[in-house]
Amino acid sequence: MSSAELPAWRRSTAGETRWPAAAVVVGTLALQVVLPHQLLPGWLLPTLSGLLIVALLLINPGRMGEFSKVERVVSLVLLALVSVTTAASAVRLVLGIVQGTFEGHAAQVLVSGAIVYWTNVVVFSLWYWEFDRGGPARRAVGRAEFPDLLFPQMDSPKLARRDWEPRYADYLYLSFTNSTAFSPTDVMPLRIWAKLTMMAQAAVSLLLAVLVFAWAVGALQG
Questions:
Q1: 152 close to 159: Cβ distance less than 8 angstroms
Q2: Residues 159, 134: Cα–Cα separation, whole Å
Q3: Torsional class of 144: left (φ above 0), alpha (ψ -120 to 50), beta (otherwise)
Q4: pTM to 2 decimals?
Q5: What are the tens digits of pLDDT across the range 159-217?
Q6: Long-range Cβ contact pairs of 127-133 (< 8 A, separation 24 or more)
Q7: Of 61, 199, 201, 213, which is least packed with CB atoms within 10 Å of its CB?
């Protein structure tokens, strides 16, 4: 089969830009301002994350059609910082609920839990986006013969145009549905790393949902 007959995810394409992912991350970091003081992990990590986002957009403001080691390292450091920030907020929220030290009304706990829950969704969407078939730059080259995450359009090409390939919004949707259903929905993990990552995300989401809503219901009835 010639390259022209292959679907977009199997051949070289122009790639995608970082702007959609950067916008979602910036908006999510801005939500940290709403969190109570006992959940804030400090301003150092969010500030560094913001600076790394700016650096990534300066390094490559266009499409990621070629692999760059510098860009890859900066993006993975950013992902690590955002992950640590989210983990710190989640741990503080869980400990505050379990130990009974969380201050505030039930509505505030629900809002805080929703923010931490959403941040968790964004973080895992970045993990899927950055590691599926080697990341966005390597996906643009289209050299991976087998997918790590199987989207419906890959299994049934007739469901989409030939130029379709997964973008960040697809990974954000994957992360959201995995968090709410606590299991894969329409996107199937094929590689071990993808299965373990989705399993970890489902476990974290279930823990947050159970603890936050149980605390809120108890507080409202009290």
A1: yes
A2: 25
A3: beta
A4: 0.89
A5: 778 888 899 999 999 999 999 988 888 999 999 999 999 999 999 998 888 887 777 66
A6: 127/79, 127/83, 127/197, 128/171, 128/174, 128/175, 128/194, 128/197, 129/21, 129/168, 129/171, 130/75, 130/76, 130/79, 131/193, 131/194, 131/197, 132/166, 132/171, 132/194
A7: 61
